[in-house]
Amino acid sequence: MRTVLRASLRTHTRRYVSAAIAVVIGVAFIVVTSLLSDATRAGLVAGVELPYRGADVVVTDVDGDQAARIVDRAEATGDSAAVLGWTPQQVRVDGRLVDDRADVAGIALDPSLRWQVLREGRFPEKPGEVVADVNAVKGKDVHVGDAVEVGEVAGTVVGLVDTPSASSGGAFYLTWPDLHAVDPDLWVDSVAYAGPGAASLELPRGATVQPRDEFVEQRQAELTNEVNVLAILLLIFAAIALFVSVLVIANTFSILFAQRARDFALLRCVGATRRQVLRSVRVEALALGVAAALLGLLVGTALGYLLVALAISALPGGSMAYPAPSPEWYAAALVTGVLVTLVAAWLPTRRTVRVSPLAALRPDDSTSVRTGAGRVRVVLGLLAVAAGASLLALSISAHDPGAMVAGGVTSFTGVLLLGPVLVPALIRVVGGVGGRVAGAPARLAAQNAVRNPRRTAATTASLLVGVTLTTAVLVGLASSRSAVDEDLDRDYPIDLAVTAADRPLPADLLERVRAVRGVGTAIALEGASARVSGAGRLPVLAASGIASVAHGSPGMAAPAPGEIWLPADVAGPRRVTVEVGEHREVLRVRSGAGWGDAAVVAPATLAALTDAPETWAVWVRSADGADAEDLAGDLDALSQAADASLANSLRERTWVVLQLDILTGTVVALLGIAVVIALIGIGNTLGLSVLERGRENALLRALGLTRRQLRATLAAEALLLSVVATVLGSVIGVTFAWVSLHALVEAAVDRAPLVLPWGQLLAVVVVAGVAGLLSSVLPARRAARTTPAAGLSLD
Amino acid sequence: MTTTTISLAASARDLTRVYGHGDTAVHALRGIDLDLPSGRFTAIMGRSGSGKSTLMHCLAGLDSPTSGSITVAGRALESMDDTALTLFRREHLGFVFQSFNLLPMLTAGQNILLPLELAGRRVDAAARARYDLVVGVLGIGDRLGHRPGELSGGQQQRVAIARALVSEPDIVFADEPTGNLDSEAAAEVLGFLRRSVRELGQTVVMVTHEDSAAAYADDVVVIADGLVA
Fold this sequence. Notes:
The complex is a heterodimer of chains A (about 800) and B (about 230).
Chain A: H1 2-12, H2 17-45, E1 57-60, H3 64-77, E2 80-93, E3 96-106, E4 117-121, E5 129-133, E6 147-150, E7 153-162, E8 172-174, H4 176-182, E9 187-194, E10 208-211, H5 212-259, H6 261-269, H7 274-314, H8 327-352, H9 375-398, H10 401-438, H11 440-449, H12 453-491, E11 496-500, H13 509-515, E12 519-532, E13 536-542, E14 563-567, E15 575-580, E16 583-592, E17 599-601, H14 603-609, E18 614-622, H15 628-641, E19 644-648, H16 650-692, H17 694-702, H18 707-748, H19 758-785, H20 788-792
Parallel strand pairs in A: 3-8, 5-7, 13-17, 14-16
Antiparallel strand pairs in A: 1-9, 1-10, 2-3, 2-6, 2-9, 4-7, 5-8, 6-7, 11-18, 11-19, 12-13, 12-15, 12-18, 14-17, 15-16
Helix pairs in contact in A: 1-7, 2-5, 2-7, 2-8, 2-16, 5-8, 5-12, 5-16, 7-8, 9-10, 9-18, 10-11, 10-12, 10-18, 11-18, 12-16, 12-18, 16-18, 16-19, 18-19
Chain B: E1 8-19, E2 26-37, E3 41-45, H1 52-59, E4 67-72, E5 75-76, H2 82-92, E6 93-96, H3 108-118, H4 125-138, H5 153-165, E7 171-175, H6 183-198, E8 204-208, H7 211-214, E9 219-224, E10 227-228
Parallel strand pairs in B: 3-8, 3-9, 6-7, 7-8
Antiparallel strand pairs in B: 1-2, 1-4, 4-5, 9-10
Helix pairs in contact in B: 3-5, 4-5, 5-6
């Protein structure tokens, strides 16, 4: 039997390639996950203790003012305290905007609490002195001695530092008085406190104080946990990829064993026992699993280190360090890969040994092997779909995520069980339409595609999994995005607003703004400088033409007569008195945000306030695809020159949109791995079918099917499989998204309309279709290469 | 036999076919000269390995000769590329194989109409009449809805013959058509081939190694060691 096994491995290696690829990808996925999470953990945890090295105790859960009081007390008693806190700020160096949203952090004056490493210049010794992180300002032309403005605070860059503690780092470091002045509400992570007073700190309510070592330990554990959560999320995607691999491998084995049924029967004829045959094929599967899993470890290791190296070189100050490969993860990945292969091979191998020795003596009819869906399978499938659907319905009415997940898994399993009935039926429908349009090749393809329903279903199932999840995620994110967009429109209606402070804007400013690259629409707003009771001096603008620059339809675009829209941070009482020179009006206050430091009134109201309105603001809507940072930088320069201030909502909008895009992209890319495996599976099924149908294809060629038509037939078969799986997956995915929207999101917000991202959904279908076509290229070439005579003499 | 105006269905001149090269080269055909008259039932006979199947594959445009010329239905095959050959087969030739070679997923009727479908031809009244005629002659009218798996060997071969005849080809090539049949079914199939020559005016070229099969033919060509004996 060993000779047979070895010969079989030698002969059939090529046919196992795609099954091996599926395992390699799955195992490599796990290894990459482990390396990336280890690199992140190593990077984050490295230097966590540094900021607290000189501290006796660490205070957490305090806000900016409470932190300030702790620092004051330390100074008063001769102790020292350093606040680890951050605020995102605009930073200008020599009047030039270098970062619209820099992480600004604190640096201690006391050397024992100072943990940054000096690279150039010196550390700050008093307020007004700033140091910059050498990596964060790389390429931004920032040097020692430059004048710097962080938010509203001006100072000088006195040094460049390196940040050895990734989890505490910032791009610019200010002394505490400056940092607190820039943003009194800054986010305070912790206060490191050193000195005899540490034991008797008076703490505000809710604050926590811990000895340094205890705090550091806890912090390290927290960071590790965060990374572990990320790793688990990644592993979910790895599990999906592996599940798809199981389908692909199981299908490969079924097809291979069907083709080799005669060989097995022959072996049985010449005296091999059932056990021997069984053991031989199982050892074959084991060999494949071990080889592929080992290769997966290698590929994953190479890929993981490559990704970490790329990340480190792209973000030198980032939170990554070179990982140490963990034996546990590698062992787990190896075992998973082998197990996946063995499980996938289990059922097909069981089926092979049922072959009777007599089968070898019958004429070659392996191509007429038909497998259908058993009645049990159909009943089980229907039951699962019904049970899943009721669970989903329950999850909607009860807003229960557990029921939703269970319902989703159950109903999807049902769909997979029904596959051998459902998929061929769909293929017949689609193929019927295609046959009418594309002629004989398409009709042949449709008939080929449904001749073995179970094989067809297994092939499409792998793609179905990937597409269903991708579509559900795309629809879910698009739907949540529409809610986010509404919020954005409310909070950030105007992309960029140049608002004059003390004198009107120059007459030519509108033209100059319009000339800036990235400006879509810009309007000038007429107004007057007014004294508003409770809010001081503010430009009052007449709302006119605002709709042409605003996102959505904010209320301030059309104030009612007698109303005044004030920025939320100055809007106090319900009524204010507005005075412009001699004129005075009492107006009802409405508040909003996102258009700068100005009040907005109806044009008639402004006319009542002044006879000679002047341009006090220019509002800008950015062009689609404009670079938000460049645009803000250019407009900032213009407004500085005009003594005006720039309110930048585009930054927030861009940031939020970018986060959503990154989230969407990441999830789709991770699911993409499962889709890739599935497409390899389609190519594989086709390739094996081509081998099996060599004689038929030769016959068709003899009867007058041209090479091109033969290739078209296989392409059409691949297209049918992938498009049917994609469309079915899209429908299920949209349904799942709809259910989860009602079960989860609607519990949180009042209404969550289903938004179908048609473009993206279409892209999924097109990509799957094209990839399906691509997967048919190799098998089709192979099929078309054989001459009819050679194919006919195959046996 | 008068020698005046016998039109040729196919002819071959100095036909050679070599498989492989160097020491392992196999000379399947070593220079065949052959004329096949139309409207007749010709048997090409020879032992296994004599080159008779290779000769038929070359004549039928399924395989390309190493050298020599072939003319079938007035067209020179050696100048055609693969697509032209395929289209030529579609238009002018019909095939019957030893192992039936029906497509398992199509019904008998669909298998018969397959050549027309591949050629993109509409099944018009004339084609339908031809189909009915062929089906009638072969006596498979009641089996048309069945798939090959549900037919006996003889029935399958009759379906294959019907498929070969339905497009009114210039020549029908039959490669060991009775090789997989019992003697009763074989006699029946050979009878049908002869009837298609007599009653439908077809030209049939059959490759066989059985004397009993060759007995049904009008002419017999014997091939041995790649040459006409």
